[in-house]
Fold:
Amino acid sequence: MHDADRGRDGDGDGSEGDGVGTDADVDAAGVLAETGFDPETSVLTRRQAEVLALRERGVRQSTIAEHLGTSRANVSSVESSARRNVERARETVAFAEALTAPVQVAVEEGADLYDVPKLVYDACDEAGVKVSHTAPDLMKIVADAAGDAVRGREVRSSLLVGVTTEGTLRVRRSAE
Structure:
């Protein structure tokens, strides 16, 4: 484990020297408590959560480094690792939602993006799931979520479009 990943007492008193900021600027423990951070259930270490919480509130890396007694480079590394972990967690949730979605529509490579709304609407009608997107909105959501798997109107890689019971679309690239 890196030093940056080890917890601190998190007193957040902000009194460690000039340029650290006010208590509100560096009270990571307070922010974590306010947002319900639980290190036992989180994919983030406490240090990663502290750094992210402060960075999301606009606190500079150098200020965080001074407060935590480490280097700005170390804070940058911790922040980068935290953001990667958050993205992995989002990807895992999207995967789990796609697995459990009551509507799953396979869109084959080479398909026309303009055909996707009808496929989705038909599958939703059959499953009794309401999708509250117009065809153009649905195409935009699919294209945006698919990234480079869609170019113009062409689906360049197979996709799985899942629709949750709430009508939320989840777009996944199929494994190749």
About this structure: The chain has two domains: 3-95, 101-173.
